[in-house]
Design goal:
142 residues, alpha+beta, 6-stranded antiparallel sheet, 6 helices, 42% helix, 30% strand
């Protein structure tokens, strides 16, 4: 299970450390791609393959399916950590997520998210309505 929040820096070459606790669950190879909410998603390879297989079953004639598939897969990159536990985030993904020097890496059950530190702070200050969220989770059976 991928959980936790970690503060790190991104270096001038676009490399970031993947925290060791998250690397254990991600495995040796994984995929980084555009995520929702202006962050990046990292998926273990088996989970990524399951998502791609699901995308293949969706109707190509549906414009939203095509747009989402393009958005989600066009910037995707398969990664492996170097000996220091870092991955290189492609520039197109760094730009998309607006990554500056300070980043936050979080585990979200079956994926990892990478956020620009300021965006993560803004998201947490503005997007969280505990009562509304609790009601929504209750309606989903959680």
């Amino acid at each position: 299970m991928l959980i936790g929040e970690y503060q790190h820096n991104i270096d001038s070459k676009g490399r970031v450390i993947v925290p060791s606790k998250l690397r254990e669950d991600l495995g040796d190879r994984f995929v980084v791609t555009r995520g929702l909410d202006s962050c990046l998603f990292i998926y273990p390879l088996d989970r990524w393959e399951a998502i791609v297989e699901k995308l293949k079953t969706l109707p190509l004639t549906d414009g939203d399916v095509r747009r989402f598939a393009r958005f989600f897969t066009s910037g995707a990159a398969q990664c492996e950590c170097d000996t220091q536990g870092r991955i290189l985030i492609p520039s197109v993904l760094r730009q998309y997520a607006g990554l500056s020097k300070n980043i936050v890496t979080i585990g979200v059950v079956d994926r990892v998210e990478i956020w620009d530190s300021q965006k993560w702070q803004d998201y947490n200050e503005g997007a969280f309505d505990g009562d509304a969220l609790a009601g929504k989770m209750a309606s989903l059976g959680i």
